[in-house]
Write a structure and sequence with these properties.
The protein is of the alpha/beta class. It folds into 2 domains: 5-123, Response regulator (Rossmann fold); 127-226, Winged helix-like DNA-binding domain superfamily/Winged helix DNA-binding domain (Arc Repressor Mutant, subunit A). Helices cover 40% and strands 21% of the residues. It has helices at 13-25, 36-46, 62-69, 86-94, 107-123, 157-168, 176-183, 192-206, and strands at 5-9, 29-33, 50-54, 77-81, 99-102, 131-134, 137-140, 145-148, 151-153, 174-175, 216-219, 223-226. A 5-stranded parallel sheet has the order 2-1-3-4-5, sandwiched between helices. The protein has a 4-stranded antiparallel sheet with strand order 6-7-8-9, with no helix packed on it. Helix 2 (36-46) packs parallel to helix 3 (62-69) and helix 6 (157-168) packs across helix 8 (192-206). The longest helix has 17 residues, at 107-123.
Length: 231
Amino acid sequence: MKGYRILAVDDEERILNFLKSKLNASGYEVLTAQNGVEALEKVRAEEPDLVLLDVLMPRMDGIETLKQLRTFSSVPVIVLSAKGSDTDKVKGLNLGADDYISKPFNPSELLARIEAVKRRANSSDQKKANELSFGDVTIDFDRRAVLVRGEQKRLTRIEWLLLAELARNAGRLMLYDDLLTRVWGPEYRDDVQILRTWVSRLRSKLEEDPNSPVLIRTVPKTGYMLDHPPA
């Protein structure tokens, strides 16, 4: 049976060797690439289950690699970078990264983040099938499809899981830490920034005017609520 396959992308061979050793010891199958061009080729050819992606690389940096990757694959991506500013983190998340870890990182934390990504990927298949409508937005849990004013919208895995939690608790205030725990896992319960970033991405696909949202409402300093928009 095929194991969980991780593609580690970094231009420093010592880091690749370190990652391969730690991940192999934890039971993962590991592929490696030393630049973005090679990484894209590996994703197409090997179809890994997850990508660990460095940002500062020759030929093609991690941000451009992620941008091109998202044109043909929804494989989960955890960005690993020495560029740990909030701006860089948000840029990676906005391009479709599932998580962002600053270097140097604790190997135990990396393994925990990988496990959290695996849980998120599996959890959507365990939900009860049905369909809910909120104004112009229809959510089909059976097909994992979202229609907005009759047009089907393509959601990333994280966007789907976040929307599913909000929709199944429609009319109820979902606290920041509750959403973070349910969608990302308990390791993320204090990472409000990652939640805000993904809510913004979701609104851009669902709301008629994302700057004045009526479907996903913000309760300042508390959480979010999905409800039927006003007529």
